[in-house]
Amino acid sequence: MAFPEGFLWGAATAAHQVEGNNVASDFWALEHTPGSFFAEPSGDACDHYRLFRQDIALLAELGFNSYRFSIEWARVEPEDGRFSRAAIEHYRDVLQACHDHGLTPVVTLHHFTSPRWLTELGGWEYDKTPERFAAYCGKVMSELGPLVPYACTINEANIGPLIRDVLTAAPQDGREPAGAPVGVTDQAARDGEDALSPVDALPADQDRPKVFLFTFSEQGVSIVKRAHTAARQAIRDASPATQVGLTLALQDIQPEPGGEKQAERIWAETFEDFVPALDGDDFLGVQSYTRSLVGSDGPLPVPDGAETTQMGYEFYPQAMENVLRRATTAGLPLIVTEHGIGTADDSRRVEFVRQGLAGLERAVTDGVDVRGYLHWSAFDNYEWMLGYRPTFGLIAVDRDTQRRTPKESARYLGALAQRNALA
Fold first, then answer.
1. Range of the domain at 210
2. The domain spanning residue 311 has which CATH number?
3. Which residues does UniProt call coiled coil (predicted)?
4. Model confidence, pTM
């Protein structure tokens, strides 16, 4: 494989999914609400907050040169306007550990979870959220900016419209639409386990919490875009050398006969409508897991007989190549910030990576400007509403002992990274 010099090879995590005990966040509160639609609480998660040094050393040992992780807003600003020096110094240590081990940090400043106090104010429907978010980003970058070469403001800024489509799609044959966002789907019981269905467990529209994942309204989507642009300016002011962008969840939208207009609508709502907010960004993070088939009434179920993952997604690694080619219309360099598969069969993860990277190489050969591939996820971690059942990790985690065990997929991808770094 031939990739550009300086290409980022790595894996990704999100703070709430791996750190453990994120007690000041809105999701922690939801997990512990009676009758919660979360399958289980996050608890200690992977205890990454304590074990980050050994985890970063392991990623470097496996052959990676980059690590994408998030800084948890609820830790840095546990109360409105009060910043935690201890939390900032913790993330300084995480960043320094990356540099010490030769890993380029790709930092995400918001990965789905927010401080409880923000949600109590109205969350991502609250008109003052952009300035609150920008103040947090500015504080972090004024302290840590020289250690942060890449900063993603918001993870999957377009997730609200995607989830809205899933929740409003008419059930067909009792199956959820293909390509539903992570943690909001009916799990395919591929391994014989009972399927989980968080979609059915979600509260009614009027009772849904005002958290980032459920920011569906036109006002809410506008606030997310404003938050990105305000944060970008705050980052630039504090750390001009840092490359700034955001990430989008981009499914490979494929219309069936009669579904062309619906497919155009979905692509417009989840990509084209966000392009104006990217004006002035340095890169776009692309996150792709599968394709979404679309009929005349909207998203369709996975085709009969298709291989599915633990999330109910169709096994379709070629989606990444197709999405990268379409995303070039944003006019920005691209970084694959997530691409992965929930499966208990690691040989299928190896095949998913192999096919995905073959498509990525074809895109790069054809001139698509891709600067990195960051696999989701580094570890088997907390998968939001579905708890710990889905396993996306390159590295297995025994949650009783917190012992880490690299899988064959980790060694396969790490070896590719090493070979390409030496090419």
1. 8-422
2. 3.20.20.80
3. none
4. 0.95
Q: What number is the average pLDDT over the span 350-364?
A: 98
152 lies in some domain: yes
| Rg, the chain, Cα only | 20
Structure tokens that stand for 38 in this block: 């979360």
Residue 2 in any domain: the answer is no
Partner residues linked to 334 by β-bridges: 284, 370
Q: Is residue 324 part of a domain?
A: yes
Give residue 65's identity as a one-letter amino acid code. Answer: N
* CB half-sphere exposure, 56, CA atoms < 13 A: 24
Q: Is residue 3 part of a domain?
A: no
Model confidence at 186: pLDDT above 50: no
**The total number of structural domains that make up the chain:** 1
Query: Which residues on adjacent β-strands are paired with residue 285?
Result: 247, 335
The sign of the CA dihedral 114, 241, 103, 340 is positive
With bands split at pLDDT 50, 70 and 90, how would you rate the model's confidence at 210? Answer: confident
Give the alpha-carbon dihedral of 138, 139, 143, 148, to 10 degrees. Answer: -40
208 CB neighbour count, 10 Å cutoff: 14
Distances (CA, A) of 373 to 21, 106, 376: 29, 11, 10
Where does the pLDDT of residue 167 fall: very low under 50, low under 70, confident under 90, or very high at 90 and above?
confident
pLDDT in tens, 19-58: 999 999 999 999 999 999 999 999 999 999 999 999 999 9
Neighbour tally for 47: CB within 10 Å: 17
> Which residues form the catalytic set?
156
